[in-house]
Amino acid sequence: MKKLKFEYRMELKFSSPVNSHYFALRCVPGDSLRQRITLTERSVAPADYISVLRDGFGNLKISGSCLENHDTFGYRVAGTAVTEGMIIQKSPLHPMYRYPSKYTQFGPSVIEFARCAEEECRSSGAETVMEKSVCIMNYLHSHFEYIPGVTDIGTTAEEALRLGRGVCQDYAHIMTAVLRFLGIPARYVNGMMIGEGYTHAWTEVYTDGGWYGFDPTNNLHIDGYYIKLAHGRDFEDCVVDKGIFRGNACQQQDICVNVEEIGDDRNSSIDGTAGR
To answer: How far apart are CA 236 and CA 163, in angstroms?
Structure first.
């Protein structure tokens, strides 16, 4: 197990004052079977109303508003996480993770790529869901190029595959789409990773009665160096910050994400009981 110190900070500057600003934030990591979170700070400003609840996917969401004029908006979340990697998180399966979604449609490029990946799995002897998932991740990592700036937050798995290039969001969408096309339930995840500096995206696969994470961008299993923020069918279900406001203004956004290891936590398990 790992003990990590994290900070997620965002500042939004408007070129002129805005008002009637309503926002929904998924910037706070929650407790789960593989991570235990202790918050030292959770601030949002300016805000005249804040509500914290879980959305329909089980993610922590901060909703609120600032009705008065303001030219800056931001939040800061900080704390520590005790994490455990490479485990199956037991959970019932919702059928929505079997089917394509807005960003993971089964277009011609997705279908062709999935069939090539399936043939690679067959030739390598991959039979179980875990073996096939590793094979697909390896195949994607070696047949897709990490190039920032060629895609954006609206790019689908189909569009990214046609380009052959993209970033972590595209890797996660493609792997999720391919797995679903091959009959393996999968979901999109975003969160924080040590050494990244920004939010990161990966995929969770449903196997043996629970969820197991893979990072196709780095060709890694999700270990103790990842902190999860949210999951859903695709990016649209996991947007870290979303909002609307009234005003004629341009925006400049600055994001800082920092994750540092502060030592092993071998003497306590993820639920706070004595170590195994």
So the answer is: 21
Question: Mean pLDDT score of the chain, rounded to an integer?
Answer: 94
Instruction: Please tell me the distance from the alpha carbon of residue 229 to that of residue 133, in angstroms, as a whole number.
Output: 22
How much is the pTM? 0.93
Q: DSSP letters along 52-81, please?
A: EEE-TTS-EEEEEEE-S-EEEEEEEEEEEE
Residue 119, classed as helix, strand or coil, is: helix
| pLDDT per residue as tens digits for the range 141-197 | 999 999 999 999 999 999 999 999 999 999 999 999 999 999 999 999 999 999 888
Can you give the length of the chain in residues?
A: 276
CB atoms near residue 217 (< 10 Å): 25
Q: Which residues contact 123 (CB under 8 A, 6 or more apart)?
A: none
Find residue 200's DSSP bridge partners: 191
Question: How far are the Cα atoms of 52, 53, 138, 169 from residue 144, in angstroms, in the given order?
Answer: 38, 37, 10, 13
Extended beta strands in 112-265, E state: 145-146, 165-166, 186-193, 200-207, 210-215, 220-221, 226-232, 241-246, 251-264
Mean pLDDT on 75-79: 98
Q: Which two structure tokens, joined as six digits, stand for 180? A: 């679903």
Angstrom distances, CA of residue 160 to CA of 125, 129, 170, 174? 28, 25, 6, 8
Asked if 187 and 94 touch (Cβ cutoff 8 Å), the reply is no
The first and second tokens of residue 14, run together, are 């408007």
Whether residue 274 is predicted with pLDDT greater than 90 in this model: the reply is: no
Q: Examine the pLDDT at 81 and tell me if it is beyond 50.
A: yes
Torsion of CA 129, 143, 204, 64, to 10 degrees: -160
